[in-house]
Amino acid sequence: MKKIIIIIVCTLVLILGVFIINYQHEKYKKNKEVEAIKSEIIEIKTVKAGNGFEDLMPLKDILKDKKVVAMGEATHGTKEFFQMKHRMLEFLVNEMGYNVFGIEACMSDCMAVNDYVINGNGDAKQVVKGMGFWTWDTKEVVDMVEWMREYNKTHLKKVKFYGFDMQSSSTAASKVKEYLKKVDGSYEIKIDGVLSTFENPKIFDDSSAKVPGDEIKDIIASFENHKDEYINKSSKEEYEIYKQNLKVIYQAYDMLNGDQSYYQQATKRAKYMAENIKWISDFEGEDSKLMVWAHNSHVSKAIDHSSYGDNDTADNIKEMGSNLYDIYKDKLYIIGFQFNEGTVTAVDKSINTGKEEARISEKCILNAAKEESIPYYLSKVKPIYFLDFKSSEKNEYIKEIMSSSQICRYVDANFNGDDQSYKNDILDECYDGLIFIDKTSNSEPNYQVTQ
């Protein structure tokens, strides 16, 4: 019996010793990883625009051959992410000749924003609100739009504002009707009923409703058959813009009409967003250079292997970034965002107060990142910085972190509680670089929110 007790004690001591050694090794490795990252970062002095570009100058060499810089965000409601993207736009325009900005909002609804930044028509707050996304109806986005307007007042080479999404058809249908009245009034009367159907903002709410999507394809074909006539009565630019509006209508129909799974809708949306970005690039010309604004999940060039519980056998979503990579290859650079802690504006689904709009809150609290997550270790480096994966991959510690699955911060428009604000990703499969901001705060909505 005594021998058995001694054996048990020795075994427990051995197990404890192994545990301590492993713990110390992991701690040593994590310290080495933090020091390795410190040696490779580009420290950012501020997220706020209007503070010069001295700290961002090292990015010029990294981005010098890129045509598209896609910038993500770990949440749809973080002030510092929005401000940093404003500052990056300012840098890319002034220092690197970028002249096009695109955001995750419906292409047609963003035409009024472009009219404001180019011609000064309208009011900044109203055109931003008119995009129809509460996520962008914020002081930070308005500040950026107003900066674009001021820049365009004094520069011959203008900065354009585009949307590349297609989640609604109403504005596009109205604009196509207006254009056809100008170039082909008799045809507009003929197809007015079809376009009027798509002017209804709730057209896709009833999955069983019969929607004339195939007739939109017929209208696109008619546009193409009358191309020269329409251009002579307007301009080549107008013709191309309104034909693209028709395509947006069809994209919305194809994505939203009928009883489709989340996987089907998300896959189509990702593909169409990438196609729309390419259309914008082609329309603006060979010398155009674009900065793209969307969520981390959309700009990611990885395949999303998440399970969405809709019984799809093929639930691996090819995200917008992956589609863009197929188009642009090494002319594309994707920047993800991570953070440690703060507050975020989101639809707070951790509580139930009735209508969804009434649940939008500025006070969704995200505590300090849990210790096993990558933002916890990134927070040990510096408060704000940029890390380029390609230039730092020679360091074995950084390569191991960025090439293995990591627990990352993740909140979209919905907040389900701090413990649900994480998602596993392999960072260098998703992005080409990362901006980390330690402490963050909620975006400032231009509308009334709950407290």
Account of the 3D structure:
- This protein is an alpha/beta fold and 451 residues long.
- It has 2 domains: 42-154 and 322-440, EreA/ChaN-like  fold; 166-257.
- Helix content is 48%, strand content 17%.
- It is built from 18 helices and 14 strands.
- Strands 1, 2, 3, 4, 5, 8, 9, 10, 12 and 14 form a 10-stranded mixed β-sheet that branches.
- The protein is globular, with a radius of gyration of 25 Å.
- The model is unreliable at 21-29 and 307-314 (pLDDT under 50).
- InterPro entries: Emycin_Estase (IPR007815), Hydrolase/PRTase-associated (IPR052036), UCP036794_erythomycin (IPR014622).
Key traits:
451 residues, alpha/beta, EreA/ChaN-like  fold, 2 domains, two-stranded antiparallel ribbon
Total separate domains: 2
The CATH first-level class of the largest domain comes to: Alpha Beta
Q: Overall 3D geometry? A: globular
CATH topology tier name of the largest domain: EreA/ChaN-like  fold
Low-confidence blocks of residues: 21-29, 307-314
CATH homologous superfamily name of the largest domain?
EreA-like (biosynthetic domain)
The helix count comes to 18
* CATH architecture heading of the largest domain: 3-Layer(aba) Sandwich
Mean pLDDT: 91
Number of strands: 14
**Main beta sheet strand tally, sense and closure:** 10 strands, mixed
Structural class determined from secondary elements: alpha/beta
Helix content: 40-55%
Estimate what percentage of residues fall within beta strands. 15-25%
For the record, give the distance between the C-alpha atoms at the N and C termini, rounded to a whole number: 65 Å
Rg (CA only): 25 Å
Protein name: Erythromycin esterase
Pfam family, one: Erythro_esteras
InterPro entries: Emycin_Estase, Hydrolase/PRTase-associated, UCP036794_erythomycin
Transmembrane segments: 6-23
